[in-house]
Here is the input.
Amino acid sequence: MRLLATLVHCPNLVIKQANATTRSSLSDTLGQQIFPDCSTPMQRMSRLFVRTLRDNPSEATLVSHRLLLRGGYIRPLGAGIYSMLPLAWRVQRRIEQIIREEMSQIDCQELQMPFVHPSDLWEHTGRFESVGPEMVRFQDRWDRDMVLAMTHEEIATDLGKWFASSYRQLPVSFYQFQSKFRDEPRPRGGLLRVREFTMKDAYSFHPDFESLDDTYNQFVEAYVRAFRRCGIEPAVVESDALAMSGSMAHEFHCLTPAGEDTIVVSPTGTYAANMEVATARKPVFDHGAPAPLTKVATPGKTTIEEVAAFLDLELHQTLKAVFYWTGDALAFVAIRGDLAVNEAKLRHLLGVPEIRLAADQELEAAGIVAGYASPIGLDNVTIVVDDSVESSTNLVAGANTPNFHLTNVNYPRDFQGTLVGDVSQVRPGDLHVESGEPLELQAGIEIGNTFKLGTFYSEKLDATFLAADGSQHPIVMGSYGIGIGRLAASVVERYHDDDGIIWPSSIAPYDVHVVQLGDSAVATGADVLAGELEASGLSVLLDDRSESAGVKFNDADLIGIPLRLTVSKRTLAAEAVEFKARTDENAENIPRDQVVATIKKAHADGIAALTPDAPIPMPSLG
RNA sequence: CGGGGCGUGGCGCAGCCUGGUAGCGCACCUGACUGGGGGUCAGGAGGUCGCCGGUUCGAAUCCGGCCGCCCCGACCA
Here is the structure.
């Protein structure tokens, strides 16, 4: 009774003291940080820095974008630039905490590298030149070239070089949570594709590739565990290793229709790859024995579809010409008409970092007739031949003369390719190269990636170590990234309903949402309850506003804290508290003296439902 | 980069075509009532109509330029 009287006068003070004591003892007992540093004393909603919106913001089409805006989680400042408001920040910090725990499990240490870099390291690796306008460059007051960090390989390598002079100091790895700025041509979808974002990025350093392989696998497992603890079962897929000048790379995807990446998977899970690198058996068609080259009139027919229809042929009986500009030259891609060019594969085959479709003027300058382009008789143009053309006979191609095409074009009889290889996109239903399974396409959000960098950066930056035999070698490296905000947005895409977000217990901004409906007696009861919950180790958001029940319940659903308790005259009279999980349809009354234990259990069950230790399906991890 | 759409109070929008005191709903403030799913009534506060220039007696509205935001697309040869 005396406690109650004290609470009425100064509830916060008492609760804070109770918390401080409980915290240290719990931490000691369990030997770990139960309260991450994002934990604060019970948050009163009347004081929370948040505004929920009743109407949907018109700019948001994706679910996560819409709900994060409506719930008062984020606020846009410019295209792809967001403030993380307290609710979102707490989610971010909880995600970070999970990652910290997983990183410490594999002996990876946290540090922080700068966000603004002098350009010289980037010039040494060549990326100051090779990276496009997505890297922001500027001059400081002394006209020195500077860049905003879009990634940290150069800086990390520099640190590794400074640290590791001997094999005895290897392997070693470190990570950071740090802002990145990438001037994306098209930011979109709220937090899904932004320009400024927080990335967790890690870098590992090794004496040899075997050591890199070991650590790489450890990172992949740690990442899968971290994603699962956040509620996402990631698809681990092969990806474009050359993007970071590496030898092997994987991406971690949250499979959802909202994703903007396309993942190629086999139904049994033996194959999963990003569209950029995916391969498949190409359907082969029998077009008969090579026949004599013939010129035919095709007046006004400039597209493959028109030509095929005009000559009454299937698309696969045509040769499509697609032109790319490689920065200083034209590349003519000859591909079977039913296939599409995969630009990432083409980039690799050409060995250039950036390509784009060629402009009409560039075609004219090379003497190519748009609409009737032909690889036959072309000089001074790089001709890339997709292997689909190599394996076909009697194709129809342009004649490089207006209104004429050539039939019975055969490779290599009629023209020579500068490069021959696979530059086509996999299509749904294409067969897996080895197993012959039909492949499926799925949309995914890339929430993480891992790269075996090898010695690309260490060689460029002269980061070497001394081996046991006294010889000097470049350090072998790996890098590993997770987009924190994108991960949070992916979780919202995955966990929501019509009313709002439904956070997994592990990363919700608060563990419990206590809704107080009523006068001062109810307020006191809610305060005491919230204090008890906090003392038990749970974080609490207490809705103490003088709003109607409907407003409070709707806000609670929108914000999406997984467990909700309601205190009202009604529940006080019943010596109970109403409990409703966000995922449940109906609420139930819990006897007052069992509330804390019940909620603790519900929270623990919510965490336990996530299964970080389940087997990890990883296609071809080398 | 290409195409489309949109900039009017914190959010959602009308007004623009046909120039003449800047409006509505929600949110916000005050008071009363109400009190378990965005409640009712009364009274309020809040806007350089994205920016610059032009036309006009007069511009949110018409004209020109610029900026910003959203969405879609980026294999036509």
